[in-house]
């Protein structure tokens, strides 16, 4: 069963990654082009007459084509990890139905791994950020991901211990999740390397497109994985696929 789930996660993760790549190509790449144009214009103003035309290792058309490769590989890796985690959760926590558990797990993963770090350290376009601080910024981002995962584990454990009813259980779980997350948001150092004069609208649009790309991936993957699991469960139970449809 684990092998089947793993193969299913890899394939559907790849498909969801390509869907997210299409969204990023349509809504994120224009912002990247604008940021690169601003960066080149700023460099030309700082040293007029100096040749800033260093050839990039990968051209912009190549980078845009590579976007689908990157999101596809991302989906492949995330889909495999998700399938293994799903196999461990199945029958132990969350909704009893396979589709419901897949959707709940995908939504939880989006909040813990994407939204929690994004609120503290949102994505920046190419013209924003000091290259010398990339290691420290990466470390801080990883720390917030770990905080999100730890807070999720604490929330699940808390929900399982509370037996006073659904409202009390959900309230305790939300509180158990938010306390460590808010503490991390407050205590971790802020990073603000947006250069003076950088268009706020462009920055906002880039960050929104970046977050929306992740939302598209997790929504597509959760729906596809849940649908596939539900379909497999019906087959295993000997229920025809059309039996669940009204009429």
Automatic annotation (TrEMBL):
Record Pfam families: CbtA
Assigned keywords, A-Z: Membrane, Transmembrane, Transmembrane helix
Membrane as UniProt keyword: yes
Matches recorded under InterPro entries: CbtA_put
Superkingdom of the organism of origin: Bacteria
Record-annotated membrane-spanning stretches: 67-89, 101-119, 139-158, 170-188, 208-228
UniProt keyword Membrane present: yes
Name listed for the protein in its UniProt record: Cobalt transporter CbtA
């Amino acid at each position: 069963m684990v092998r089947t789930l793993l193969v299913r996660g890899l394939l559907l993760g790849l498909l969801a990654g390509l869907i997210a790549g299409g969204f990023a190509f349509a809504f994120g790449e224009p912002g990247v082009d604008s940021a690169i144009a601003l960066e080149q214009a700023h460099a030309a103003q700082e040293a007029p007459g100096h040749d800033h035309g260093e050839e990039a290792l990968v051209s912009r058309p190549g980078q845009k084509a590579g976007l689908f490769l990157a999101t596809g590989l991302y989906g492949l890796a995330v889909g495999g990890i998700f399938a293994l985690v799903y196999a461990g959760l199945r029958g132990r926590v969350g909704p009893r139905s396979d589709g419901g558990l897949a959707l709940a797990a995908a939504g939880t993963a989006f909040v813990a791994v994407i939204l929690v770090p994004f609120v503290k350290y949102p994505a920046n376009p190419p013209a924003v950020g000091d290259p010398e601080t990339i290691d420290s910024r990466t470390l801080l981002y990883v720390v917030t991901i770990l905080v999100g995962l730890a807070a999720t584990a604490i929330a699940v454990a808390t929900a399982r211990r509370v037996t006073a009813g659904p409202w009390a259980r959900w309230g305790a779980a939300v509180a158990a999740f938010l306390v460590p997350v808010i503490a991390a948001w407050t205590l971790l150092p802020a990073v603000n390397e947006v250069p003076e004069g950088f268009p706020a609208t462009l920055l906002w649009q880039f960050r929104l497109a970046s977050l929306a790309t992740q939302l598209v991936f997790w929504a597509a993957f959760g729906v596809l994985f849940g649908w596939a699991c539900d379909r497999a469960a019906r087959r295993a139970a000997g229920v025809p696929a059309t039996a669940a449809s009204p009429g």
